[in-house]
Amino acid sequence: MSVFVQQHGSFEIITVWTGCSAAVSALENPKDWPKYRSVLNKIVQVIRVMGEVTFKLSSPKANSLARDISCSVTREGRLTSDLALGGPSWLQDRIERDRRS
């Protein structure tokens, strides 16, 4: 799962990308997923205070680079990615490898 946040003035637009169609379906239609009602209710409560949140489906391959970036940021205990500064060397290598294939 990858999360992208766009800032528009004081308003944030949050897009959550995942390769799990069941997760998107559950979030879009929580009443159809009674087994997960408790968790889905908590997610819905958080979404209400976050502003505009959308959930989108992506292929696991398309999502792999974003997943690697988010894992790197989380693993290193940072709150933001350093992409604006060119990113870490592993990222540059990965982008070049993906470009060639």
Topology:
Elements: E1 2-8, E2 11-18, H1 21-28, H2 37-50, E3 52-57, H3 60-75, H4 89-100
Parallel strand pairs: 2-3
Antiparallel strand pairs: 1-2
Short description:
The chain is of the alpha+beta class and 101 residues long. It has helices at residues 21-28, 37-50, 60-75, 89-100; strands at residues 2-8, 11-18, 52-57.
Comma- or semicolon-separated keywords:
101 residues, single chain, alpha+beta
What this model shows, in words?
There is one protein chain. This protein has 4 helices and 3 strands. The chain is α+β, with helices and mostly antiparallel strands and 101 residues long. A hairpin with a 2-residue loop joins strand 1 and strand 2. The chain is globular and about 45 Å long.
Task: List how many beta strands DSSP finds.
Answer: 3
Stretches with pLDDT under 50, minimum 5 residues: none
The biggest sheet, with number of strands, parallel, antiparallel or mixed sense and barrel status, is: 3 strands, mixed
Outline, from the CA principal axes? Answer: globular
- What class do helices, strands and sheet pairing give? alpha+beta
Which H/E pattern describes the elements?
A: EEHHEHH
Distance between the termini: 23 Å
Percent helix among the residues?
40-55%
Mean pLDDT: 78
Tally the helices: 4
Beta-strand proportion:
15-25%
How are the strands ordered across the major sheet? 1-2-3
Count of discrete structural domains? 2
Gyration radius (Cα, Å) is 16 Å
